[in-house]
Amino acid sequence: ARVTEAHRGRYTCTVECPKYLSKRVNLKVYSFPERPKLELEPKDVYAGQTAHLTCSGYNIYPCDNAKVLWYQDDDLRKLLDPQIVYEDDRCNMTSKWSVLVNSSDERISFTCVIQLEDQIFARNTTLEIHLKTGLHELQLEPTTVRAQTGDELILNCSAQGSPQPVIEWKKDSQDHKIPPYWTITHEVGRSELRISHLSPADEGVYYCIITSGNSRAELNTSVDVHYGPRYTRIKGPEHDQ
């Protein structure tokens, strides 16, 4: 007969020869027709970036006491209770894990194991990824500035990468000579350039120079400084009457 969930239970076989002999068998029934599906976001992962993993199993039975084991390479990293959606006697299971990937290896693997009922039955899927290196998520804001003499200028530059990016600033062909009135602050993966009171001499193109190992990138923004009158008033003939 085709085994279904209804056949689960204890069975006893009894023989009379010449006395009664019996043997009991505990029948456990499982449904796990396909390996778990393992998905990665983002598709391209850089060293030092967070990888978001989703492990899904479908048409599973039994659903109680299930566990999801997460491995990075050969190391057990997480043991989680899955999210379960029931469909009659069977169910679908999902587990999510976010991990910061700091590895000197070019390749790294993640394995998801869905384990049913006291470790008796399990299926797994392994995903191997090739870590990217260098710079990514580069940003300089704002990209264009139109300001008035005396205004404050604030430029923000950010980047991600492995090794940790180094950010420097320059203006036009300044060749990294920083004027004393520039205020530059640095945080992990970002830098801010601030000029409290703009003058006509501050007009030009500002460069954010980012380096990470052998990778280098430049972002730039144009700053226009208007040095005419800030406020004007036109007096018409009606005001002379």
Automatic annotation (TrEMBL):
Q: Which SUPFAM superfamilies match?
A: Immunoglobulin
Where does the Ig-like domain start and stop, copy by copy? 36-128, 136-224
Coiled coil residues, start to end: none
Q: Name one Pfam family in it.
A: I-set
Q: Kindly give the InterPro entries that the UniProt entry links to this protein.
A: Ig-like_dom, Ig-like_dom_sf, Ig-like_fold, Ig_I-set, Ig_sub, Ig_sub2
CDD domains, from UniProt? Ig (cd00096)
The protein's name: Cell adhesion molecule 2
Q: Which species? A: Callorhinchus milii (Ghost shark)
